[in-house]
Specification:
By secondary structure, this protein is α+β, with helices and mostly antiparallel strands. It has a single domain, classed as 3-Layer(aba) Sandwich (His-Me finger endonuclease fold). It is 29% helix and 15% strand. Strands 1-2 form a two-stranded antiparallel ribbon. The longest helix is centred in the first third of the chain and has 13 residues. The termini are far apart. Bound molecules: zinc ion (ZN). The site of zinc ion has 8 residues, from helix 3.
Length: 94
């Protein structure tokens, strides 16, 4: 891992305020190191630049293909399926 990637990781983490950019969970609440995710996958030509990167907790990173967000039928805006403020993990993922 290059020094510049370490620096990019720092930047992305700071920009996200150490919160998962999908579920807004703070890194300190998860007790795990969050992942730096490529918004456009590298396989699809996405770059390692900070503007193509997002901070994601392991749950969101691994669950992205399981539709972490779905389009809201009324606004067509992507909305999280899981609300960490009001839902309990155990209930939501039962
Ligand atoms: Zn998350």
């Amino acid at each position: 891992m290059s020094a510049s990637w370490v620096e990019t990781t720092r930047q992305v983490t700071a920009r996200a305020g150490s919160r998962c950019e999908y579920c807004r969970m703070h890194q300190s609440l998860q007790g795990a190191t969050f992942h730096i995710e490529h918004i456009t996958p590298r396989a699809a030509g996405g770059s390692d630049a900070a503007d193509n990167l997002a901070l994601a907790c392991p749950s969101c990173n691994l669950g992205k293909s399981d539709r972490v967000r779905v389009p809201d039928p009324s606004t067509a805006e992507a909305v999280p399926l899981f609300n960490p403020r009001t839902d309990l993990w155990a209930d939501h993922f039962a």
